[in-house]
TrEMBL record:
It comes from the Eukaryota. This is DCD2B protein. Signal peptide: none annotated. Residues 13-95, 133-211 form the Doublecortin domain. InterPro entries: Doublecortin_dom, Doublecortin_dom_sf. SMART domains: DCX. GO terms for cellular component: microtubule; microtubule organizing center. One of its GO terms (biological process) is intracellular signal transduction. It comes from Brachypteracias leptosomus.
């Protein structure tokens, strides 16, 4: 091709994005190409929908130093970034520890507890994690996904211990799991796939608008079928 011919489009880049301030979000993979995304703003709009962000994503940051990305050209193939709205960037040191890593990953996948891994949902099933859990009285943190194996029996004490480790309630250990109508769940057989629950400590269940404030509208309409 002559020097006056059309320049080749840059190759597609594969990146993983995490929700700002959510150590339990497993990450969402994106393939970024010039054909699919014409502008940085268009990419951010897609990210907002795909990661079920409680607020519109307007900023991307590097996880270790919090450097802000401003163009699609800033994205590196194999890179991992933090998606945020207008709130301040929250460093991911604790998040990488939750993912079983000592430092941010480059090309390898994080080592997760298989009982808690939730694969990124397809666009037609946003917000439909097998189970999603709110923290009692917390209207700042979105629900975290909880995937429980169907092939083995669920030991309730083990589940409560896992929830205690993952939720870090200000009141301490998780003592019960409640439905949004405040009724308590006492056995794994009572948990319904795709439903939302609240992890509660020794304190009383706090009836708050968890769904209205922490779950995107398209997900809320799906969840209201059982509230």
């Amino acid at each position: 091709m002559s020097s006056g011919g059309l320049a080749l489009a840059p190759p597609a880049r594969r990146v993983v994005l995490y929700r700002n301030g959510d150590p339990f979000f497993p990450g969402r993979r994106f393939v970024v190409s010039q054909r699919r995304f014409l502008t940085f703003e268009g990419f951010l709009n897609e990210v907002t929908k795909s990661i079920c962000a409680p607020l519109a994503v307007r900023n991307l940051y590097t996880p270790r130093h919090g450097h802000r990305l401003t163009t699609l050209g800033d994205l590196q193939d194999g890179g991992r970034y933090v998606a945020a709205g207008s709130e301040r960037f929250k460093r991911l040191k604790e998040f990488w520890n939750h993912l079983g890593c000592k430092r941010p990953l480059r090309s390898s996948s994080p080592t997760l507890n298989p009982a808690l891994v939730v694969p990124p949902p397809p666009s037609h099933a946003l917000g439909c994690f097998p189970h999603s859990v709110f923290r009692n009285g917390d209207l700042l943190s979105p629900p975290f996904p909880l995937l429980l194996p169907r092939s083995s029996p669920l030991h309730w004490d083990t589940l409560l211990a896992t929830l205690t480790e993952k939720t870090t309630l200000s009141s301490g250990a998780v003592h019960q799991l409640c439905r949004l109508d405040r009724t308590s769940v006492s056995a794994g057989e009572e948990l319904l796939s795709g439903h939302y629950y609240v992890a509660v400590g020794k304190e009383e269940y706090k009836k708050l608008p968890y769904m209205e404030l922490l779950v995107p509208q398209d997900s809320t309409s799906r969840a209201l079928r059982y509230v």
